[in-house]
Amino acid sequence: MRQEFFPPLDFQSVFAEPWTSQFEGSFQIVLMGFFVSLGCGLIGNFVVARRLALVGDAISHSLLPGIAIAFIFMASRSVTAMFIGAAIAGVATTLLIEFIQRQSRVKPDAAIGIVFTTFFAIGVVVISLWLDKVHLDPDCVLYGEIGFVPLHESIFIGGFSLGPRPLVTMGVVALIDLLLVVIFYKQLLVTSFDAGLARSLGMPVKATHHGLMIALALTIVASFEAVGVVLVIAMIIFPAVTAGFFFERMPFLLWSVPALALSYALGGFHLATWLDCSIAGAMVVVAGGLFVTAWLFGPNGGLIWQCSTRSILPRDQPGPTTGSVPG
Predict the structure, then answer these.
(1) CA distance 230 to 260
(2) Which of 85, 87, 148, 270 is least buried, going by the fewest C-beta atoms within 10 A?
(3) In angstroms, how far is the first alpha carbon of the chain from the final one?
């Protein structure tokens, strides 16, 4: 019997039922995806502007040894223990990458590769030597499952439920990221595009960089339980590069993050409902689809825009140039 590659699309079961018979769970899953994309996207705009997108990948792989070592010392698989271990490993990764870059002749990309491969290998060795009889699955850390968010215990304040713990944690982290961007916007902007100008203005270039990297590490740590640290890397990169085909100035790039985050969360949720696949993975597929659309049709360097411009301009007239302009 021939099996269809895509299941038939039933509008009622894919788009209506999740918001009628399963509203609370669906809402929490989509909200979690929105918070992850929002927090990662806000920080990611400045990370991409500094050409440090691979640092997020390094942090994601470096969380494994932190989680494993935290279990050994605390003898517990509690969320608090795992979060502390992952946070320490994430911050240590950013500081070690920075130290290698400044104290040696190793290039930034090589320093990132050295740190994250070493940390990840240490995590694998620690698990195989001391935790072989303990259910600590590296795949769970790397890929996560956002669909399990509604099953976590809720956080109560004054008898009122705020929601599942991962959702509340990620919401708080996303709010902190937003406040940091608003409060330190000028420092983040100038140091990202012109460190020399920032120094001449008396701005703390190193402190701003370290603060951004620590915020990135904590955002990834807060996301790893539900979304998985590998998939969260996409949410750091996609909003910035997708919006970049429509806007050049940083304020517009930042304002586009909430709309893109909502598109990723809603689109990924319904795509996963239709295909019965990983919700986090479906979110990344939607993000990739929106990026390709922007790449094709975006007025700021899109492929179709470039082709149409070249066909209109005279051969001896240079075409328009595009480039990021600080906001």
Answers:
(1) 19
(2) 148
(3) 58
Query: How far from chain centre, in Å, is Cα 291?
Result: 15
Token code pair at residue 172: 């708080």
In the beta sheet, which residues pair with residue 155?
A: 163
CA 176 – CA 163 distance, rounded (Å): 18
Please name each of the domains of the chain with its CATH number.
11-151+164-312 (1.10.3470.10)
Summarize pLDDT for 189-239 with one digit per residue, the tens: 999 988 888 899 899 988 898 888 888 888 887 887 677 765 788 899 999
| pLDDT given at position 323 | 44
200, 202, 204, 208 alpha-carbon torsion, rounded to 10°: -70
Task: Provide the 3-class DSSP secondary structure of residue 163.
Answer: strand
Sign of torsion over alpha carbons 249, 251, 252, 257: positive
Residue showing tokens 């603060």: 211
Between residues 291 and 209, which one has the greater pLDDT? 291
Q: Structure tokens of 203?
A: 């701005």
How far apart (Å, rounded) are the C-alpha atoms in residues 43 and 250?
A: 12
* 3-state helix, strand and coil shares in percent for the chain, rounded to the nearest 5: 75, 5, 25
Question: Which position has the token pair 């109560």?
Answer: 156
What residues contact 152, with CB distance under 8 A and at least 6 apart?
164, 165, 166, 167
Q: What is the DSSP letter of 6?
A: S
Contact 98, 213 (CB under 8 A): yes
Joined together, the tokens standing for residue 69 give 């070592």
Torsion of the alpha carbons at 63, 66, 72 and 76, rounded to the nearest 10: -60
How much is the pTM? 0.84
Q: Which residue has the tokens 């961007």?
A: 181
Distance separating alpha carbons of residues 238 and 256, to the nearest angstrom: 11
